[in-house]
Write a structure and sequence with these properties.
Blueprint: H1 2-19, H2 23-32, E1 38-42, E2 61-69, E3 75-82, E4 90-92, E5 113-120, H3 122-125, E6 132-133, H4 135-145, E7 153-158, H5 168-172, E8 189-190, H6 192-201, E9 204-209, H7 223-230, E10 235-237, E11 250-256, E12 264-274
Parallel strand pairs: 5-7, 6-8, 7-9, 9-10
Antiparallel strand pairs: 1-12, 2-3, 4-10, 4-12, 5-11, 11-12
Length: about 280
Amino acid sequence: MLAPRLIFLYFLTFFILISCKDHSTKSELKTLDTKTAKKIVDLTHDFSRETIYWVTAKEFELDTVFAGQTDNGYYYTANNFTTAEHGGTHIDAPIHFAKGKQTVDQIPLENLMGPAIKIDVSDQAFNNPDYLVSIDDFKSWEAQENMQIPDGSIIVIYTGYESYYPDKKKYLGTDQRGEDAVKQLHFPGLSPEAATWLVTERHIKAIGLDTASIDYGQSTTFDSHVTLLSANIPAFENLTNLKDLPNRDFEIIALPMKIKGGSGGPLRIIALLDSN
């Protein structure tokens, strides 16, 4: 299986690195690791006062507990932070929209890592804030790549909206907050028909995109959320750097904060590409 192989490789490389005692050994390691070297692409936005949250959700706050020299002569820094589960780069656990389904701590790790593909709809979506990613967009990828979406894939959808972050007006369609702002949300998302097609016709592990929600901004019933999460397919929202990914042949590792009983949480997500 891919995930255990990746984990074994990382731990093996780490063990060898810390065991190296001289330059010659490190040179040998570099030679041995040439075929397995990976380029890392960080798909995660920073968490800060600029982080974009749903217009009704509590925003990120970082409070300094202490920063500076202590009376004992050493430097020390510690902070407290508060935040909603759903904001910035984060995961929607299945229970978020599906009663009795997996909480964030219950999602199997193998469903959060593995081979991935990118669906690029930026030409259609970037200038259309109400764009709905369609079944045809997925079929177009299959026709272009001359293959069906592989079983067990993680899908990331590139709309181009990552370039607007953290400008709320451009990214969300509004810089207002509160219940009244919900009606002003405009950004692309996955059509309910495409969500159903992915569940019934393809077999994917997870799905993510570079907007604030897997459903488009004007959705009031969140059908794509309900369909995907009811099938225990988690969603990754507010991704970035998707522009740097190829359409296929890369891997995703998406590790959320392990909140017991959580409906979601902050996510550190990366892509691994062949460096050759």
